[in-house]
Amino acid sequence: MPHGAVDTHAHVIGLPPDFPLEEGRSYTAPAATPASYLHMLDATGMTYGVLVQVSVHGVDNRLLLQTLRAQPDRLRGIAVMPLGLPQRAYEDARSAGVVGLRLNVLYGGGIGFDMLEGYGALAKEMGWHLQFIVDTRDLPALAPRIARLPVPFVIDHMGHFPTAEVSPDDASFQTLVSLVRDGGWVKLSGAYRLSHQPPPYEETIAHAQRLVEAAPDRCVWGSDWPHVANWGTMPNVGDLLDTLALWVPSAVQRNDILVKNPGRLYGFDKL
C-alpha cells in the first residue's frame, strides 16, 4: 500500500443506550468501535481514513465526531445533518474534521433529495462537498439538479445498482458516467453490494473501468467497512483491494486513486 493511501468510506457504530439506533432503520448492525476501525486501517496499510455517518444513527453524529476529534491528523468525516441547525452546530462539525454531508435514501435514517438545493447552499457556505447514496437507475431524473450544484459531489458505491440488471451500456449507468466525466466524483467501492458473485466480483470490472476512463482524477476507493446490510458473502478488506487491482491494473493509476485523488478531495494533501 502506498504511503498516504486513504480508505474513503467506512463507518463506526455504537449501541444503545449510549448511541440509540433509528427506529426506521432497514437493518441492525453490531457495534463497530473506533478501536476496531483503526485496527483495520493499520492492518491494511492505510495512512488515512474517511468515516461516513452510518444510517442506523440517523442525524446523531456524536460517535462520528468523537472519533474524528480523537484522530485529527488521520481522519476526516462525512456527516448527516438537518438543515436549519444553529450555525455553531455546523462549525463544530467542521472543526472536528467534517468535510462533507451525505444524502441517503436507500437504508432508512437518512436525508433525501427533496432539499438538495438547500444542502448545496449549506455545503458551499461551509466549504464542504455533498455525497450521495443513490441507485443509478434513479439518476436520470436527478442528474439535472445534481449537475447544477455549486459544490463538488461524490456518488457512493459506483451508483449502488445490481450488475445483473444494469449493464455498462445501460442508459442509467451512462448518466452516472456523464456526471463523473463532467466534474463529479465517484467511489470505487461496494462491489459486494452490486454483485451476487463471490470475491473478486468480476462482473463489476467493466463498470468500474468505464468510470475510471471517464475521470481517473476523480475516482477514490473505499472499503465500506464493516460491510453493514450485507446478507451475502462477507468480504474482508483484502478481498476488496484485490478487486481494485482488477478494476485498475495500472499501479500508477491505482496510487492516484488511493493517494492523490482523495488527498485533494478530503484535504489530506495539506497535512
Helix content: 25-40%
Label the overall shape.
globular
* CATH topology category name: TIM Barrel
The CATH C-level name is Alpha Beta
Cα Rg:
17 Å
Could you say what the CATH architecture is? Answer: Alpha-Beta Barrel
Assign the structural class, choosing from mainly alpha, mainly beta, alpha/beta, alpha+beta, or little secondary structure. alpha/beta
**In what order do the strands lie side by side in the largest sheet?**
1-2-3-4-5-6-7-8
The helix tally amounts to 10
* H/E topology pattern: EHEHEHEHEHEHEHHEHH
Mean pLDDT: 95
Oligomer description = single chain
**Largest sheet, if any?**
8 strands, parallel
Gap between N and C termini, in Å? 19 Å
Poorly predicted tracts of residues: none
Beta-strand share of residues: 5-15%
Strand segment count: 8
The CATH fourth-level homologous superfamily: Metal-dependent hydrolases
Overall number of domains: 1
For this entry, give a set of tags.
271 residues; globular; 37% helix; alpha/beta; TIM Barrel; 10 helices
Task: Note down, in words, how this protein is organized.
With 271 residues, the chain is an alpha/beta fold. It has a single domain, classed as TIM Barrel (Alpha-Beta Barrel), CATH 3.20.20. The chain has 10 helices and 8 strands. The chain has an 8-stranded parallel beta sheet with strand order 1-2-3-4-5-6-7-8. Strand 6, helix 6 (171-181) and strand 7 (185-188) form a beta-alpha-beta unit. Helix 5 packs parallel to helix 6 (171-181). The protein is globular. The mean pLDDT is 95.
